[in-house]
């Protein structure tokens, strides 16, 4: 069983005590605002819930097909979010018949409609919107909140990585995190991976949840814009057996700078899937705990160990900074024939 906070597992615990909330204008059915009261003291993950703060994070969740349980916004944001709540409920089928819209299938791609597009008021909103003054919203969450809107949604379930999918196209590149416990570091790494165009993020044992409040904020909502899957030693064993290039970020005598990995000439040996010999293998960069790195059982499954050359007596970098540098370098080396 995974430890609390580990990807793919809900964290169980006592519900937080109810808190008084300020009076405000209600425009939809009553949401449970107690969930947001004194927010910094709450662990909503214990209830399988996550908090989305600000337009960017909420929009990225909506684009991923995640509808909040409810949203609270300031008066200045009311028009936008009332319209957006209706648009989030619109699908091609429901557009023809607002009263007979069926619930979307789990495997259906999210239908994203620009907030500026007109939607008839007959469409019921996908989620309730409650409106209050900026001052009342700050009083509710009990800190200075300047993002205009905040929402509560159910945490998505993280499914295991299907390792065979890494061989579906040439040179897929993944970031794998192992025991990265700090939510801010994890969020920053996910944001960088999304920004640089990596295929996906794999979360090994011990990692913070990508759907913690701090993680979502640090990722700028990009936890919803890049595939995130769980991984195990078995995942790495499968990838290793089938010719993947697994690169461990490590401070060991074996570790070499990225340019010495020979990634530009990497080819995939014949594998159990019968892929052509000239097909390039997937690349997985693994980053471990900032304090003690990767465990030996993970290092034993890696094909290479990589480091960032340092000077002036500095022996290491923050894991989010190091990960960003290595992702950029590895992508450059993997996709460019040569730097000479």
From TrEMBL:
Example of a GO MF term: RNA binding
Compositionally biased intervals (Low complexity): 92-108
EC number: 2.1.1.-
GO biological process: methylation; RNA processing
EC main group: transferase
A matching Pfam family: SpoU_methylase
Domain tRNA/rRNA methyltransferase SpoU type: 173-328
InterPro entries, A to Z: Alpha/beta_knot_MTases, Ribosomal_eL30-like_sf, rRNA_Methyltransferase, SpoU_MeTrfase, tRNA_m1G_MTases_N
Region described as Disordered: spans on this chain: 89-108
Keyword match Nucleotide-binding: no
Alphabetically ordered keywords of this record: Methyltransferase, Transferase
Keyword hit for Methyltransferase: yes
Protein name: Putative enzyme
Organism: uncultured spirochete
